[in-house]
Structures are given as structure tokens and as C-alpha cells.
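Thread title: Can someone regenerate the structure for this chain?

I was given the following input by a collaborator and told the matching C-alpha cells would be attached. They weren't. Posting the sequence so someone can regenerate them.
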Amino acid sequence: MNTNRLLTLYSGVLTAACAIAVATSAGAGPAPAKAAFDEIDVKRINIREDDGTIRMIVSNTSRSPGIIMHGKERPHPSGNRGAGIIFYNNEGSENGGLTFSGQKGPDGKVSGGGHLSFDQYEQDQVIQLTQSEYDGRRWAAMVVNDRPDAALDFDMAERISKMPEGPERTAALQKVQADGTFGRQRLYVGKTRDRESAVMLNDAMGRPRIMMKVTPDGKASIDFLDDKGGVIRSVTPDVK
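Best answer:
Regenerated them for you:
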């Protein structure tokens, strides 16, 4: 009799304990899943905040994103930017990225490049670390740009990018360059297509004002330029 009462009490305590454990677990929510892989093949990875805001996309060429601003996507002006990693700010707007390519065409010519950049808010890249090669000519540089205060005009960029090669497209590009619609380059440090080491400092209008360079055969110079590109003064090593 005493044994039966003891078993009944023990059973009641266990039932109560299980009920409390289940209730506590339900209130805390399910434990987050965590998986470990030795190797994984994917075509695209989207990194998001807890509220769903996109912060990074890693993708192959076919699944590369268009332009995403405030979480809304539109086609990229170039059609497809290729494989890489795109960064997004706290508002889900593009904020820079890393892209890369390289191949040998049917004609045997190599083309490719790599590009790491960071963008101004609602604008284009202000810092670039970039390299490119095509048809045997190569250049590589760090570039700093000025961008307008206003948001980037994607409609205009898309319209110009879709123009066929010709006088009309050339005129449109020259106009936006002169107006500074998409910004202007302020600093170039790198190697040119002519295999010169160069440092170019530009004014707020994008005009070169100081050019430092070393030619492939070792000739060094520093040129001071006027607003038309004319050399005001040139400094070279003394020849003894």
C-alpha cells in the first residue's frame, strides 16, 4: 500500500516536471539549426539580416543580381555583371562588391579582370582596386572618384548603355562626362596600358593637374598641368 502511494507520487512529480520542461521549451522557441559541411556546391548565397534585409550576395554569372536599391531589384545596365560578391548597406541598397573574370576567346585573345569597390550612399563606386587586360594590353590601379550628392540616375545610365555604338552614344557619353553627371575621377595610382607607373591627381572637375610617371625604360618625371592639360612645369632628375 505504501509502495503504491510512493509510485503514484513519483509518477505525478515526473509528469509535472515534463509539463514544465515542455512549456519552457515552447516559450523559448525552437533552437536555431546549425549545419556543418565539408564541401558544398551552390550557384548563389543570399546573406540577410534577421528582418530579411539583404546584406551580401555571392553568385555565379547566371544568377548574379541586378541593381538592388532599398530592397528593390532592377536590371543591371550592362545586362550581367558576372560572378562575384555584392555588398549592401543597412537599407538593402548596393554598397560595392568584388567581381572577377578571365577567358581566352576563339581568336586566342585573352580578356579578363578583377574589381573590388565601395560605393557612396545611393551612388556609384568611390574607391576602386581594379585590373583589366584585353588583347595583350593590361592596366591595374587604385582609383578614387568624386560622386554627386544626388542619387544615381539609373534610368539615364540604362538608356545610354542600350544605345548602339555611334555618334549619338559618343555624344551622350561626352555630355554626362562634361556635366559630371556620374562623377569624376580624382586620383589614379597604378600601371597604365603603356606599361608606365603613374600617379595622377585631378581637380574637382576631373582635370589632371599633377602627373607623376616612370616609363618602362626608367625615365621619371613630374608634370604640373593647367586646366587645358598643358604642361606648366616639368620636373625631371638632373642628368650628370
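The longest helix spans residues 2-28.
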